[in-house]
From TrEMBL:
PANTHER family: FAMILY PROTEIN, PUTATIVE (AFU_ORTHOLOGUE AFUA_3G15060)-RELATED. It comes from Virgibacillus byunsanensis. The lineage of its organism: Bacteria, Bacillati, Bacillota, Bacilli, Bacillales. This is VOC family protein. Residues 7-121 form the VOC domain. InterPro entries: Glyas_Bleomycin-R_OHBP_Dase, Glyas_Fos-R_dOase_dom, VOC_core. Transmembrane segments: none annotated. Gene3D superfamilies: 2,3-Dihydroxybiphenyl 1,2-Dioxygenase, domain 1. It comes from the Bacteria. It holds the Pfam family Glyoxalase.
Length: 123
């Protein structure tokens, strides 16, 4: 084979129909992602897109929504302890997980119950 996988383009997470403002409040206002305008042909489907650097998170809406409690994106962070403190001060519940050797990591849930991992590898 001559093709090569380069990088992940985006992560799609689901949310209930009509929850775009809750997504903005969490991903934009708390986590600090920038909202990205969806292409016109996709905007009619609902949902909202976010970006921070090369990390793209798309929130799609579903009628029969069920949160992803095990499947999750994992986002590498610099200064993870500062992020943890900020999230705690922002009333976001942080669940520390020390089971991965060499990683400082924790999980949060978005407003819809989707799990998100943040981690920083020891150098």
């Amino acid at each position: 084979m001559s093709f090569l996988y380069e990088t992940v383009d985006h992560v799609q997470l689901a949310a209930p129909v009509g929850s775009e403002e809750s997504a903005r409040n969490f991903y934009r206002d708390v986590l600090g992602f920038e909202e990205v305008e969806k292409p016109e042909k996709l905007a009619k489907n609902g949902g909202v897109w976010f970006q921070s650097g090369t990390i793209h998170i798309h929130i799609g809406v579903e009628e029969s929504f069920v949160p992803a409690q095990k499947a999750h994106p994992a986002i590498r962070v610099k200064n993870i302890e500062e992020l943890k403190q900020y999230l705690n001060e922002s009333s976001v519940t942080v669940k520390v997980d020390e089971r991965l050797p060499g990683a400082n990591r924790f999980y949060v849930s978005d407003p819809f119950g989707n799990r998100i991992e943040f981690l920083e590898w020891a150098t």
